[in-house]
Amino acid sequence: MSKKYTAEQRQAVLARLAPPFNESVKDVAKAEGLSMSAIYNWINAAKKQARPFQEEEAPPESEAAADWTARDKFAAVVETAAMNEAERSAYCRSRGVYPEELALWRKACEHATDWADDQVRQRADANKEAARRIRNLERELARKEKALAEAAALLVLRKKAAAIWGDEDE
Question: How many helices (H) does the chain have, and how many strands (E)?
Fold first, then answer.
């Protein structure tokens, strides 16, 4: 009999796999009495939901960063991409944001493309599944049309035979 786990319990197990704990799947499975495949299934499910399997608690935004739009944050990430750490720190001081916020914005930008890729992949998988289902339905329809044509031909032949040799049933 399989034991049902709540979303919170699953999240707690997955959190043990991520930093700062970084426990192995084998160790967590043994400690929790789970199969490794169950944990891998949970990891894959979390990835499919386009979110990291550990909910990171973001530090509070500075007052200046709270007014920034997504476009401004993206522009800041692009502007600072080629800068070294000292230049990035100076940039952040001049704009009134923390370097940690800039790092989070960069990470969000990187994950945004992953999310878009996942969406494209999910649509492609759905299209493949729909095409497969259509092919199967078309095959089944052709089979049933053949059977119906055969049954109709047999009825016509039975009527012709009865007309030629007389009806034995009557």
Answer: 7, 0
